[in-house]
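From the pipeline queue, job 12 of 40. The input is one protein chain; the requested action is below.

Action: predict structure.
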Amino acid sequence: MSRRFLFVLGSARAEGNTELLARRAAEQLPADVEQRWIDLAEQPLPDFEDLRHDSDHVRPPSSTPTGLLLDATLAATDIVIASPVYWYSVSAQTKRYLDHWSGWLRIPGLDFKTRMAGRTLWGVAALADEELSVADPYAGTLRNSAAYMEMRFGGVLLGSGSKPGDVLNDTGALTRAKTFFAQDAPLARFPHETAGAV
């Protein structure tokens, strides 16, 4: 299967540091790798409503933002969450997108979890801190989501930046961006599954 990347932009600011860093990493992908970019600010999802126990779940029409994101997610081999670190986790728009995965799991006949298994989840984020470890909760959100879905996890490309364009001064992040998508993405595991592993 040829690789198809979906970049889900979750910033509250257009062309912000996270998007700049994601585009630098995407420039390194081979020309034959399809890229699709969806800005959640331009395709706003409705608030997620948990209807697990009291409603029939139907596939959203492709003409809606929810249906568009579902179709794009299923079409991708690689999903890149490009969200800044907001309060040590993903943005509200990004969290809403991930919350909708819960609904998609319950659409009869869609087999969302089965179809997502084995695909790869990546993260790209800018944060207003030079100490990158403060983004550990962000990385944990994505890693654990990938583990639950039995996906691979390529890790998170982090860059430091607050004002527009700041991340372009983070030479370490720009260097990491050159090889980020070329690295091996192992099957995601929850921390308790890897604790004590040698």
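Job complete. The CA atoms of residues 154 and 185 lie 4 Å apart.
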